[in-house]
Write a structure and sequence with these properties.
The chain is built from five helices and ten strands. By secondary structure, it is α/β, with parallel strands linked by helices. The strands form two sheets. A five-stranded mixed β-sheet has the order 1-4-6-8-7. A five-stranded mixed β-sheet has the order 5-2-3-10-9. A hairpin with a 7-residue loop joins strand 2 and strand 3. The protein is globular and about 40 Å long. The termini are close together.
Length: 181
């Protein structure tokens, strides 16, 4: 927590600013933007004897889950292509202990969503690494899967993956209350 910062007020402010997601505030995400997440959102992948494909891992604390759900809702409401970047929290040992896999890892600093609402992009799904940025291109079907997965993490369900095939999966893990800020 940042000294002097009331996370409850920040959270309430964010909820208020996102509340009319599908109405007049669509322009918020129509332009490219980088946003500092409220709460903690983590995204990483492990490496063992070289890279094991593109198998990614994601978790967030309660505030981070709320924030991700708000962002994903805004994206879902868009009728224009969008690019949204979220600044991530650096992974630490307490996060790595969640899936109980002790191996070197690569920490991502930014999670970038590239969304296309076009019908031809409905099932689009890919994950690419661009330096310290994880870039996820997705259509409506996988966006809905992301929302479900983040909601499940928020409600204590985890340990499963989403993706269209083995090399482009994201495993979601519940962030234990004892680890939350």
């Amino acid at each position: 927590q940042v000294p002097g910062m009331d996370l409850g007020a920040v959270r309430k402010s964010a909820r208020t600013s996102f509340s009319s997601a599908c109405q007049s505030e669509k322009t918020f995400f129509c332009a490219t933007g980088t946003m500092k997440s409220i709460g903690c959102v983590y995204f990483w992948k492990y490496k063992t004897d070289g890279w094991l494909g593109n198998e990614w891992h994601c978790t967030a604390d309660s505030y981070g889950c709320d924030y991700l759900l708000e962002v994903l809702t805004r994206i879902t409401c868009s009728d224009v292509p969008m690019k949204v970047e979220i600044v991530l929290t650096p992974v630490n040992q307490s996060v790595l202990d969640i899936p109980e896999y002790n191996s070197p890892f690569e920490n991502m600093q930014v999670l970038r969503f590239l969304y296309s609402p076009a019908a031809s992009s409905f099932y689009e799904w890919s994950i690419a690494e661009n330096g310290s940025t994880a870039e996820i291109t997705l259509g409506k079907a996988m966006l809905n899967e992301w929302q479900r997965a983040v909601d499940d993490v928020k409600n204590g369900q985890s340990g499963y993956s989403i993706g269209l095939h083995e090399d482009y999966t994201v495993s979601f893990w519940t962030f234990e209350k004892s680890n939350q800020v």
